[in-house]
Amino acid sequence: MANVAVIGAQWGDEGKGKIVDWLAERADMVVRFQGGHNAGHTLVVGENVYKLSLLPSGIVRGTPSVIGNGVVLDPWHLKSEVEKLRGQGVDVTPATLKIADTCPLILPFHRDLDALREDASGAGKIGTTRRGIGPAYEDKVGRRAIRVCDLAHLDDLGPQLDRLCAHHDALRAGFGEPPVDRAALVAELKDIAGFVLPFAAPVWRDLAEARSRGRRILFEGAQGVLLDIDHGTYPFVTSSNTVAGTAAAGSGMGPSAVGFVLGIAKAYTTRVGSGPFPTEQDNAIGERLGTRGHEFGTVTGRKRRCGWLDAVLLRQSAAVSGITGIALTKIDVLDGLDEVAICTGYRLRGEMLDYYPANAADQAAVEPVYETMPGWQETTAGARSWAELPAQAIKYIRRIEELIQCPVALVSTSPQRDDTILVRDPFAD
Ligand code: IMP
Fold first, then answer.
1. Which of 58, 149, 218, 356 is least enclosed, having the fewest CB within 10 Å?
2. 74 is catalytic
3. Does residue 234 come out as left (phi exceeding 0), alpha (psi in the -120 to 50 range) or beta?
4. Helix/strand/coil for 163
5. Cα of 152 to ligand 1 centre, how many Å?
6. Is the distance from CB of 390 to CB of 374 less than 8 angstroms?
7. What is the average pLDDT across 264-288?
8. Residue 167 is a catalytic residue
9. 341 lines ligand 1 (CB under 6 A)
10. Cα–chain-centroid distance for residue 22?
11. 227 CB near ligand 1 (under 6 Å)
12. Among 182, 180, 107, which residue's Cα sits nearest to residue 139?
Protein backbone atom coordinates (compact mmCIF):
# COMPACT_ATOMS: atom_id res chain seq x y z
CA MET A 1 0.00 0.00 0.00
CA ALA A 2 1.49 3.28 -1.13
CA ASN A 3 1.72 6.55 0.69
CA VAL A 4 0.66 9.25 -1.73
CA ALA A 5 2.19 12.65 -2.46
CA VAL A 6 -0.06 15.17 -4.17
CA ILE A 7 1.78 17.97 -5.94
CA GLY A 8 0.90 20.72 -8.39
CA ALA A 9 2.33 19.94 -11.83
CA GLN A 10 2.00 23.49 -13.24
CA TRP A 11 2.23 26.95 -11.63
CA GLY A 12 -0.03 26.17 -8.66
CA ASP A 13 -3.81 26.57 -8.37
CA GLU A 14 -4.40 23.27 -10.20
CA GLY A 15 -7.20 22.23 -7.87
CA LYS A 16 -5.14 20.31 -5.31
CA GLY A 17 -7.58 21.14 -2.48
CA LYS A 18 -10.39 19.02 -3.85
CA ILE A 19 -8.14 16.08 -4.73
CA VAL A 20 -6.39 16.13 -1.35
CA ASP A 21 -9.75 16.31 0.39
CA TRP A 22 -10.98 13.40 -1.69
CA LEU A 23 -7.93 11.29 -0.79
CA ALA A 24 -7.78 12.54 2.81
CA GLU A 25 -10.95 10.67 3.65
CA ARG A 26 -9.01 7.42 3.20
CA ALA A 27 -5.72 8.63 4.66
CA ASP A 28 -4.70 8.17 8.29
CA MET A 29 -2.57 11.31 8.25
CA VAL A 30 -2.16 14.38 6.03
CA VAL A 31 1.21 16.17 5.96
CA ARG A 32 2.20 19.59 4.56
CA PHE A 33 5.93 19.57 3.77
CA GLN A 34 6.88 22.90 2.13
CA GLY A 35 5.70 26.46 1.55
CA GLY A 36 3.65 28.37 4.05
CA HIS A 37 0.48 30.43 4.02
CA ASN A 38 1.16 31.48 0.43
CA ALA A 39 -0.84 28.43 -0.63
CA GLY A 40 -4.56 28.65 -1.27
CA HIS A 41 -6.52 25.43 -1.06
CA THR A 42 -10.27 25.54 -1.49
CA LEU A 43 -12.35 22.64 -0.23
CA VAL A 44 -16.03 22.30 -1.01
CA VAL A 45 -17.78 19.93 1.38
CA GLY A 46 -21.49 19.84 0.73
CA GLU A 47 -22.73 23.39 1.23
CA ASN A 48 -19.60 24.51 3.02
CA VAL A 49 -16.53 26.12 1.46
CA TYR A 50 -13.28 26.06 3.42
CA LYS A 51 -10.29 28.13 2.37
CA LEU A 52 -6.99 26.93 3.76
CA SER A 53 -3.57 28.49 3.31
CA LEU A 54 -1.38 26.89 5.94
CA LEU A 55 -3.26 24.02 7.52
CA PRO A 56 -3.22 20.58 5.88
CA SER A 57 -6.52 19.87 4.13
CA GLY A 58 -7.16 16.75 6.21
CA ILE A 59 -7.99 18.96 9.17
CA VAL A 60 -11.47 19.73 7.80
CA ARG A 61 -12.51 16.07 8.08
CA GLY A 62 -10.72 15.44 11.36
CA THR A 63 -7.88 13.41 9.79
CA PRO A 64 -4.75 13.84 11.96
CA SER A 65 -2.73 16.54 10.24
CA VAL A 66 0.92 17.50 10.37
CA ILE A 67 2.83 20.63 9.42
CA GLY A 68 6.33 19.35 8.63
CA ASN A 69 9.71 20.96 9.14
CA GLY A 70 9.86 22.07 5.48
CA VAL A 71 7.08 24.59 6.05
CA VAL A 72 7.70 28.21 7.14
CA LEU A 73 5.14 29.12 9.78
CA ASP A 74 3.57 32.50 10.50
CA PRO A 75 2.28 31.98 14.05
CA TRP A 76 -0.23 34.85 13.87
CA HIS A 77 -1.64 33.52 10.63
CA LEU A 78 -1.84 30.06 12.20
CA LYS A 79 -3.98 31.47 14.99
CA SER A 80 -6.34 33.31 12.66
CA GLU A 81 -6.74 30.30 10.33
CA VAL A 82 -7.40 27.94 13.24
CA GLU A 83 -9.92 30.37 14.75
CA LYS A 84 -11.67 30.83 11.42
CA LEU A 85 -12.01 27.08 10.98
CA ARG A 86 -13.25 26.67 14.53
CA GLY A 87 -15.85 29.33 13.67
CA GLN A 88 -16.95 27.06 10.79
CA GLY A 89 -17.37 24.18 13.25
CA VAL A 90 -14.08 22.37 12.54
CA ASP A 91 -12.35 20.97 15.61
CA VAL A 92 -8.64 21.87 15.59
CA THR A 93 -6.83 20.51 18.64
CA PRO A 94 -3.32 19.33 19.50
CA ALA A 95 -4.70 15.82 18.88
CA THR A 96 -5.68 16.64 15.28
CA LEU A 97 -2.87 19.06 14.40
CA LYS A 98 0.84 18.69 15.10
CA ILE A 99 3.48 21.18 14.02
CA ALA A 100 7.17 20.28 13.65
CA ASP A 101 9.09 21.96 16.43
CA THR A 102 11.81 22.67 13.85
CA CYS A 103 9.64 24.85 11.57
CA PRO A 104 11.22 28.28 11.01
CA LEU A 105 8.93 31.19 11.89
CA ILE A 106 7.78 33.93 9.53
CA LEU A 107 8.13 37.15 11.52
CA PRO A 108 6.63 40.60 10.87
CA PHE A 109 9.88 41.92 9.36
CA HIS A 110 9.84 39.07 6.80
CA ARG A 111 6.50 40.35 5.56
CA ASP A 112 7.85 43.91 5.52
CA LEU A 113 10.92 42.90 3.53
CA ASP A 114 8.89 40.90 1.01
CA ALA A 115 6.69 43.94 0.33
CA LEU A 116 9.57 46.46 0.34
CA ARG A 117 11.48 44.42 -2.23
CA GLU A 118 8.47 43.92 -4.44
CA ASP A 119 7.59 47.62 -4.34
CA ALA A 120 11.18 48.56 -5.19
CA SER A 121 11.47 46.10 -8.10
CA GLY A 122 9.18 47.84 -10.58
CA ALA A 123 8.67 45.76 -13.72
CA GLY A 124 11.12 43.12 -12.45
CA LYS A 125 9.04 42.17 -9.45
CA ILE A 126 8.31 38.49 -8.80
CA GLY A 127 4.68 39.08 -7.93
CA THR A 128 4.99 37.27 -4.58
CA THR A 129 2.10 36.80 -2.18
CA ARG A 130 3.89 39.33 0.10
CA ARG A 131 3.58 36.95 3.03
CA GLY A 132 7.26 36.85 3.89
CA ILE A 133 7.86 33.38 2.48
CA GLY A 134 11.12 34.13 0.63
CA PRO A 135 12.75 36.16 3.43
CA ALA A 136 11.85 33.47 6.00
CA TYR A 137 13.45 30.73 3.89
CA GLU A 138 16.52 32.95 3.43
CA ASP A 139 16.93 33.13 7.20
CA LYS A 140 16.47 29.38 7.49
CA VAL A 141 19.31 28.55 5.10
CA GLY A 142 21.32 31.49 6.51
CA ARG A 143 21.07 29.72 9.90
CA ARG A 144 19.51 32.76 11.56
CA ALA A 145 15.90 31.63 11.89
CA ILE A 146 13.82 31.53 15.05
CA ARG A 147 12.00 28.22 15.07
CA VAL A 148 8.85 26.89 16.72
CA CYS A 149 10.90 25.17 19.46
CA ASP A 150 12.45 28.55 20.36
CA LEU A 151 9.04 29.87 21.42
CA ALA A 152 9.49 27.92 24.67
CA HIS A 153 12.80 29.71 25.37
CA LEU A 154 12.18 33.32 24.41
CA ASP A 155 14.16 34.72 27.33
CA ASP A 156 17.25 32.80 26.18
CA LEU A 157 17.29 33.94 22.55
CA GLY A 158 20.04 36.51 23.20
CA PRO A 159 22.78 36.15 20.56
CA GLN A 160 20.49 34.29 18.13
CA LEU A 161 18.06 37.22 18.11
CA ASP A 162 20.93 39.72 17.88
CA ARG A 163 22.30 38.03 14.78
CA LEU A 164 18.90 37.84 13.12
CA CYS A 165 18.02 41.45 13.92
CA ALA A 166 21.44 42.78 12.89
CA HIS A 167 20.94 41.16 9.49
CA HIS A 168 17.49 42.67 9.07
CA ASP A 169 18.48 46.07 10.45
CA ALA A 170 21.06 46.36 7.66
CA LEU A 171 18.52 45.37 5.02
CA ARG A 172 15.89 47.70 6.46
CA ALA A 173 18.34 50.60 6.56
CA GLY A 174 18.81 50.14 2.81
CA PHE A 175 15.08 50.78 2.38
CA GLY A 176 15.10 53.73 4.83
CA GLU A 177 13.19 51.68 7.42
CA PRO A 178 13.86 51.85 11.19
CA PRO A 179 15.64 48.93 12.92
CA VAL A 180 13.63 46.02 14.28
CA ASP A 181 12.09 46.83 17.68
CA ARG A 182 13.48 43.78 19.52
CA ALA A 183 11.57 44.30 22.75
CA ALA A 184 8.28 44.61 20.85
CA LEU A 185 9.13 41.50 18.78
CA VAL A 186 9.86 39.40 21.88
CA ALA A 187 6.66 40.67 23.50
CA GLU A 188 4.63 39.71 20.42
CA LEU A 189 6.28 36.28 20.34
CA LYS A 190 5.55 35.73 24.03
CA ASP A 191 1.98 36.65 23.34
CA ILE A 192 1.55 34.10 20.55
CA ALA A 193 3.76 31.32 22.01
CA GLY A 194 0.98 30.04 24.26
CA PHE A 195 -1.21 29.43 21.22
CA VAL A 196 1.43 27.67 19.11
CA LEU A 197 3.33 25.53 21.61
CA PRO A 198 0.54 23.03 22.42
CA PHE A 199 0.65 21.97 18.75
CA ALA A 200 4.47 21.69 18.61
CA ALA A 201 5.97 18.19 18.50
CA PRO A 202 8.87 16.16 17.10
CA VAL A 203 6.56 15.10 14.28
CA TRP A 204 9.15 12.84 12.66
CA ARG A 205 8.51 10.42 15.54
CA ASP A 206 4.76 10.36 14.93
CA LEU A 207 5.39 9.83 11.23
CA ALA A 208 7.92 7.04 11.84
CA GLU A 209 5.45 5.33 14.14
CA ALA A 210 2.59 5.76 11.69
CA ARG A 211 4.73 4.24 8.98
CA SER A 212 5.79 1.28 11.08
CA ARG A 213 2.12 0.58 11.81
CA GLY A 214 1.27 0.64 8.09
CA ARG A 215 -0.77 3.82 8.31
CA ARG A 216 -1.64 5.61 5.07
CA ILE A 217 0.11 8.94 4.82
CA LEU A 218 -0.93 11.64 2.37
CA PHE A 219 1.66 14.31 1.61
CA GLU A 220 0.06 17.58 0.51
CA GLY A 221 2.20 19.76 -1.72
CA ALA A 222 1.67 23.49 -2.18
CA GLN A 223 2.29 25.70 -5.24
CA GLY A 224 3.48 23.69 -8.27
CA VAL A 225 6.56 22.18 -9.91
CA LEU A 226 7.01 25.19 -12.23
CA LEU A 227 7.38 27.36 -9.10
CA ASP A 228 10.08 25.08 -7.65
CA ILE A 229 13.20 26.99 -6.59
CA ASP A 230 15.44 24.65 -8.67
CA HIS A 231 13.20 23.30 -11.41
CA GLY A 232 10.81 26.20 -11.94
CA THR A 233 10.93 29.36 -14.04
CA TYR A 234 13.68 30.94 -11.91
CA PRO A 235 13.71 33.65 -10.60
CA PHE A 236 9.90 33.82 -10.94
CA VAL A 237 9.42 31.00 -8.46
CA THR A 238 8.65 30.46 -4.80
CA SER A 239 11.48 29.90 -2.31
CA SER A 240 11.01 26.19 -1.62
CA ASN A 241 11.32 22.92 -3.50
CA THR A 242 7.82 22.02 -4.58
CA VAL A 243 8.74 18.71 -6.25
CA ALA A 244 7.64 15.41 -4.72
CA GLY A 245 11.14 14.63 -3.45
CA THR A 246 10.62 17.30 -0.81
CA ALA A 247 7.80 15.33 0.81
CA ALA A 248 10.40 13.16 2.55
CA ALA A 249 12.94 15.81 3.61
CA GLY A 250 10.23 18.34 4.49
CA SER A 251 8.52 16.00 6.92
CA GLY A 252 11.44 14.03 8.35
CA MET A 253 11.08 10.74 6.51
CA GLY A 254 13.25 8.76 4.11
CA PRO A 255 12.80 8.83 0.32
CA SER A 256 10.98 5.48 0.24
CA ALA A 257 8.17 6.96 2.33
CA VAL A 258 6.48 8.23 -0.82
CA GLY A 259 4.98 5.61 -3.10
CA PHE A 260 2.54 7.12 -5.58
CA VAL A 261 3.14 10.68 -6.80
CA LEU A 262 -0.08 12.25 -8.02
CA GLY A 263 0.57 15.37 -10.11
CA ILE A 264 -2.38 17.72 -10.40
CA ALA A 265 -2.74 19.53 -13.71
CA LYS A 266 -5.48 21.69 -15.14
CA ALA A 267 -6.74 20.79 -18.61
CA TYR A 268 -5.36 24.22 -19.58
CA THR A 269 -2.72 26.41 -17.87
CA THR A 270 -2.82 29.36 -15.47
CA ARG A 271 -0.22 31.44 -13.73
CA VAL A 272 -0.51 34.16 -11.09
CA GLY A 273 2.31 36.65 -10.63
CA SER A 274 5.09 37.57 -13.05
CA GLY A 275 7.28 35.33 -15.18
CA PRO A 276 7.32 33.54 -18.51
CA PHE A 277 4.23 31.69 -19.69
CA PRO A 278 4.68 30.45 -23.29
CA THR A 279 1.07 29.39 -23.93
CA GLU A 280 -0.55 32.47 -22.34
CA GLN A 281 -3.59 33.69 -24.28
CA ASP A 282 -3.83 37.41 -23.66
CA ASN A 283 -7.00 37.52 -25.77
CA ALA A 284 -10.62 36.37 -25.88
CA ILE A 285 -9.63 32.71 -25.32
CA GLY A 286 -7.71 33.63 -22.15
CA GLU A 287 -10.65 35.75 -20.95
CA ARG A 288 -13.04 32.88 -21.58
CA LEU A 289 -10.87 30.39 -19.70
CA GLY A 290 -10.52 32.84 -16.79
CA THR A 291 -14.23 33.55 -16.59
CA ARG A 292 -15.42 29.96 -16.93
CA GLY A 293 -12.67 28.71 -14.62
CA HIS A 294 -13.18 31.46 -11.98
CA GLU A 295 -9.46 32.13 -12.17
CA PHE A 296 -8.85 34.47 -9.25
CA GLY A 297 -6.26 33.72 -6.55
CA THR A 298 -7.50 32.24 -3.26
CA VAL A 299 -4.83 34.06 -1.25
CA THR A 300 -4.43 37.43 -2.98
CA GLY A 301 -7.58 37.65 -5.12
CA ARG A 302 -5.39 38.43 -8.14
CA LYS A 303 -6.66 37.61 -11.62
CA ARG A 304 -4.79 34.61 -12.99
CA ARG A 305 -3.21 34.61 -16.44
CA CYS A 306 -4.70 31.85 -18.62
CA GLY A 307 -3.58 29.85 -21.65
CA TRP A 308 -3.53 26.50 -23.44
CA LEU A 309 -2.17 23.31 -21.94
CA ASP A 310 1.61 23.12 -22.29
CA ALA A 311 2.51 19.46 -22.77
CA VAL A 312 6.25 20.24 -22.89
CA LEU A 313 6.22 21.78 -19.43
CA LEU A 314 3.91 19.11 -18.08
CA ARG A 315 6.19 16.34 -19.37
CA GLN A 316 9.13 18.10 -17.71
CA SER A 317 7.21 18.43 -14.41
CA ALA A 318 6.35 14.73 -14.52
CA ALA A 319 10.00 13.82 -15.07
CA VAL A 320 11.60 16.03 -12.40
CA SER A 321 9.00 15.06 -9.83
CA GLY A 322 8.67 11.36 -10.63
CA ILE A 323 4.94 11.73 -11.19
CA THR A 324 3.21 8.33 -11.26
CA GLY A 325 -0.15 9.58 -12.48
CA ILE A 326 -1.86 12.86 -13.36
CA ALA A 327 -5.13 14.15 -11.92
CA LEU A 328 -6.55 16.27 -14.71
CA THR A 329 -8.84 19.00 -13.36
CA LYS A 330 -11.29 21.55 -14.75
CA ILE A 331 -11.83 19.81 -18.10
CA ASP A 332 -15.34 21.33 -18.08
CA VAL A 333 -13.82 24.81 -18.54
CA LEU A 334 -12.98 23.75 -22.13
CA ASP A 335 -16.57 22.72 -22.91
CA GLY A 336 -18.10 24.57 -25.89
CA LEU A 337 -14.86 25.54 -27.67
CA ASP A 338 -14.69 24.85 -31.42
CA GLU A 339 -11.02 23.97 -31.16
CA VAL A 340 -8.56 23.17 -28.38
CA ALA A 341 -4.79 23.58 -28.67
CA ILE A 342 -1.89 21.84 -26.93
CA CYS A 343 1.69 23.07 -26.98
CA THR A 344 3.91 20.23 -28.23
CA GLY A 345 7.26 21.99 -28.63
CA TYR A 346 9.04 25.34 -28.75
CA ARG A 347 10.82 27.30 -31.40
CA LEU A 348 13.80 29.23 -30.08
CA ARG A 349 15.63 31.48 -32.55
CA GLY A 350 14.73 29.17 -35.43
CA GLU A 351 15.52 25.90 -33.64
CA MET A 352 13.02 23.38 -32.31
CA LEU A 353 13.19 22.40 -28.62
CA ASP A 354 11.38 19.55 -26.87
CA TYR A 355 12.12 20.91 -23.38
CA TYR A 356 11.96 24.26 -21.58
CA PRO A 357 15.37 25.96 -21.49
CA ALA A 358 16.80 27.04 -18.12
CA ASN A 359 17.97 30.55 -18.95
CA ALA A 360 15.43 33.29 -18.17
CA ALA A 361 15.99 35.13 -21.48
CA ASP A 362 15.52 31.89 -23.45
CA GLN A 363 12.43 31.06 -21.39
CA ALA A 364 10.93 34.42 -22.30
CA ALA A 365 11.90 34.06 -25.98
CA VAL A 366 10.53 30.59 -26.82
CA GLU A 367 7.56 30.46 -29.17
CA PRO A 368 5.09 27.64 -28.56
CA VAL A 369 4.28 25.22 -31.37
CA TYR A 370 0.69 24.02 -31.16
CA GLU A 371 -1.28 21.02 -32.20
CA THR A 372 -5.01 21.72 -32.50
CA MET A 373 -7.88 19.33 -32.06
CA PRO A 374 -11.63 19.72 -32.51
CA GLY A 375 -13.35 20.76 -29.26
CA TRP A 376 -16.65 19.41 -27.93
CA GLN A 377 -20.00 21.10 -27.48
CA GLU A 378 -21.43 18.72 -24.86
CA THR A 379 -20.89 19.35 -21.15
CA THR A 380 -18.33 17.39 -19.17
CA ALA A 381 -19.28 19.08 -15.89
CA GLY A 382 -20.21 16.57 -13.21
CA ALA A 383 -19.22 13.48 -15.24
CA ARG A 384 -18.33 10.50 -13.06
CA SER A 385 -17.42 7.92 -15.72
CA TRP A 386 -15.71 7.83 -19.11
CA ALA A 387 -19.07 6.94 -20.64
CA GLU A 388 -20.35 10.40 -19.64
CA LEU A 389 -17.52 12.20 -21.47
CA PRO A 390 -17.85 13.33 -25.09
CA ALA A 391 -15.61 11.37 -27.49
CA GLN A 392 -13.55 14.48 -28.33
CA ALA A 393 -12.84 15.16 -24.65
CA ILE A 394 -11.58 11.58 -24.26
CA LYS A 395 -9.36 12.03 -27.35
CA TYR A 396 -7.98 15.24 -25.83
CA ILE A 397 -7.12 13.44 -22.57
CA ARG A 398 -5.55 10.49 -24.39
CA ARG A 399 -3.43 12.85 -26.50
CA ILE A 400 -2.19 14.60 -23.36
CA GLU A 401 -1.15 11.25 -21.89
CA GLU A 402 0.82 10.43 -25.05
CA LEU A 403 2.53 13.79 -25.16
CA ILE A 404 3.51 13.94 -21.49
CA GLN A 405 4.41 10.24 -21.30
CA CYS A 406 2.46 9.82 -18.09
CA PRO A 407 -0.98 8.26 -17.50
CA VAL A 408 -4.03 10.12 -16.24
CA ALA A 409 -5.04 8.56 -12.93
CA LEU A 410 -8.16 10.60 -12.42
CA VAL A 411 -10.22 13.34 -14.02
CA SER A 412 -12.02 15.98 -11.98
CA THR A 413 -15.16 17.42 -13.56
CA SER A 414 -16.40 19.93 -10.96
CA PRO A 415 -15.39 21.34 -7.55
CA GLN A 416 -17.65 18.75 -5.88
CA ARG A 417 -15.53 15.90 -4.58
CA ASP A 418 -17.68 13.11 -6.04
CA ASP A 419 -17.54 14.55 -9.55
CA THR A 420 -14.41 12.55 -10.28
CA ILE A 421 -13.55 9.81 -12.77
CA LEU A 422 -11.15 7.39 -11.15
CA VAL A 423 -8.83 5.47 -13.49
CA ARG A 424 -6.24 4.28 -11.01
CA ASP A 425 -6.55 4.55 -7.25
CA PRO A 426 -3.29 6.05 -5.88
CA PHE A 427 -3.75 4.39 -2.50
CA ALA A 428 -4.30 0.96 -4.06
CA ASP A 429 -0.81 0.75 -5.58
P1 IMP B 1 5.91 33.67 -2.78
O2 IMP B 1 5.74 32.19 -2.63
O3 IMP B 1 4.90 34.47 -2.01
O4 IMP B 1 7.32 34.12 -2.54
O5 IMP B 1 5.62 34.03 -4.33
C6 IMP B 1 6.50 33.61 -5.37
C7 IMP B 1 5.70 33.21 -6.62
O8 IMP B 1 4.95 32.05 -6.35
C9 IMP B 1 4.68 34.27 -7.10
O10 IMP B 1 4.61 34.21 -8.51
C11 IMP B 1 3.38 33.78 -6.50
O12 IMP B 1 2.27 34.24 -7.24
C13 IMP B 1 3.57 32.28 -6.64
N14 IMP B 1 2.78 31.52 -5.67
C15 IMP B 1 3.05 31.32 -4.36
N16 IMP B 1 2.12 30.52 -3.81
C17 IMP B 1 1.26 30.20 -4.79
C18 IMP B 1 0.10 29.36 -4.85
O19 IMP B 1 -0.31 28.72 -3.87
N20 IMP B 1 -0.52 29.28 -6.06
C21 IMP B 1 -0.05 29.92 -7.16
N22 IMP B 1 1.02 30.69 -7.16
C23 IMP B 1 1.68 30.83 -5.98
1. 149
2. no
3. beta
4. helix
5. 31
6. no
7. 96
8. no
9. no
10. 17
11. yes
12. 107
183 C-beta neighbours (distance < 10 Å), count: 8
> Using omega within 30 degrees of 0 as the cis cutoff, is the peptide bond preceding 235 cis?
yes
Say if strands 4-8 and 217-220 run parallel, antiparallel, or are unpaired. parallel
**4-100+199-260: CATH class:** alpha beta
Kindly report, residue by residue over 17-52, the tens digit of the pLDDT.
889 988 998 999 999 999 999 988 888 888 889 999
Q: Where are the domains of the chain?
A: 4-100+199-260, 108-196, 266-428
**How far apart are alpha carbons 16 and 160 in whole angstroms?**
37
Torsional sign, CA 414, 416, 417, 422: negative
* CATH class in words for 266-428: alpha beta
CA distances from 309 to 2, 69, 357 (A): 29, 33, 18
Rounded distance, CA 208 to CA 112, Å?
37
Atom of ligand 1 minimally distant from the CA of 134: 4
* Interatomic CA distance for residues 82 and 88, integer angstroms: 10
- pLDDT given at position 1: 63
CATH architecture, domain 108-196: Orthogonal Bundle (1.10)
Burial code (b: 16+ CB inside 10 Å, e: under 16) for 16-44 equals: bbbbbbbbbeebbbbbbbbbbbbbbbbbe
Supply the pTM of this predicted model: 0.96
β-strand pairing of 65-67 with 48-52: unpaired
Q: Taking the mean position of all CA atoms in its chain, how far away is CA 345? A: 26
φ/ψ of residue 303, rounded to 5: -70, 135
User: What's the gap in Å between 303 CA and the centre of ligand 1?
Assistant: 13
Expressed in angstroms and rounded, the spacing between residue 1 Cα and the centre of ligand 1 is: 33
Task: State pLDDT tens for residues 210-235.
Answer: 999 999 999 999 999 999 999 999 99
pLDDT digits (tens, 9 = 90+) for 136-185: 999 999 999 999 999 999 999 989 999 999 999 999 999 999 999 999 99
